[in-house]
Amino acid sequence: MRIAVLDAATLGEDIQLEEFFPYADVIKYPNTAPEEVPKRIKGFDVIIINKIKITGEVLDQADALKLICVAATGYDNIDLAECRRHGVAVANVPGYSSHSVAQVTVATVLFLYNRIESYRNFVISGDYYASKTANRLVPQYREIYGKTWGIIGYGGIGKEVAKAAEALGCRVIVNKRVPTAEAECVEIDELCRRSDIISIHCPLTQDTRGLISRERIATMKDGVVLVNEARGLVLDEEAVRDAVLSGKIGGFGCDVYSTEPFGPDHPYESIKALENVLLTPHMAWGAYESRVRCFKIISENIISHFNGGNKNRVDINK
């Protein structure tokens, strides 16, 4: 069996992928440009991708491909209809990153609430010693206790975030496509109106694209803290930028973007250095333990497929 990893650089260099696939010949490419994909998938039974886009034009060149393994839970970069037409199976990795993403989400909220960077820099700069004062309380920071934390998307990640938020003394409300008795579920507009903190963990679909619009932001509390750990296009990025600059959004954290990596023309370029903004490079999913789980499950998906199973297939009944 031949396996090609097309964007290995996005999966980290601290784990030897070959250890997880001893039954195969594994070829790794650090990165693969769109025009290189058709050539690089030729002759391979399996490809492992993270962010590579798979289209019908790409699959037209696949002479041996039987399985696409996406090293992620989301698979909006893969045209499932074209995969079915070409007889190529697709498997994802559900649930592997819940703890990692939840951890980064909570850390982001606490970073924004506690204004930690400002206090740290005050000490590093020497201003603390120069002040001759034992403590400093500027900028003002607020307790998270007693705040309402709205969670959009209540899958594995959302549930882990909810546990942490409740442990910190927050009231948790949830927007979920199919309401559940496990949590206080509300409509999206109510969640936007009521929440002091909003974190987003839903998949990108036609229903969630642009979910956090300019109109919805206008209904939020003044000074709301907004954190996006879902997909960049769930937000109207220009509207978010404008709301940060106006002060409507008091704190903004984001790990995902409509263009990755984003460049000088992106709306967030003008706010990325603000003290109340924390932008990270799509890293929330990637704790070491999370990636180990991911690769183990990918290996299980491959073994299942070639033994006639359907483990984590997303191209069936979709």
Describe the structure in brief.
With 318 residues, this protein is α/β, with parallel strands linked by helices. It has helices spanning 37-41, 56-59, 80-86, 98-114, 116-124, 127-131, 156-167, 188-194, 214-219, 237-246, 288-306; strands spanning 2-5, 25-28, 46-49, 67-70, 89-91, 148-152, 171-175, 197-200, 224-228, 249-254, 277-279.
Q: Helical amount among residues, as a percent range?
A: 25-40%
Please count the beta strands (DSSP E, at least 2 residues each).
11
CATH superfamily of the largest domain: NAD(P)-binding Rossmann-like Domain
Which H/E pattern describes the elements? Answer: EEHEHEHEHHHEHEHEHEHEEH
Overall SS class: alpha/beta
Radius of gyration: 22 Å
CATH class of the largest domain: Alpha Beta
CATH topology title of the largest domain? Rossmann fold
> What's the number of structural domains?
2
Shape, principal axes of CA atoms: globular
Approximately how much beta-strand content do the residues carry? 5-15%
Gap between N and C termini? 27 Å
The overall average pLDDT, rounded, is: 96
- CATH architecture type of the largest domain: 3-Layer(aba) Sandwich
Q: Can you walk me through this structure?
A:
32% of the residues lie in helices and 15% in strands. With 318 residues, it is an alpha/beta fold. The protein has a six-stranded parallel sheet, sandwiched between helices. Strands 2-1-3-4-5 form a five-stranded parallel sheet, with helices on both faces. Helix 3 (80-86) links the parallel strand 4 (67-70) and strand 5. Helix 4 (98-114) crosses helix 7 (156-167). The longest helix has 19 residues, at 288-306. The model has no long low-confidence stretch (mean pLDDT 96).
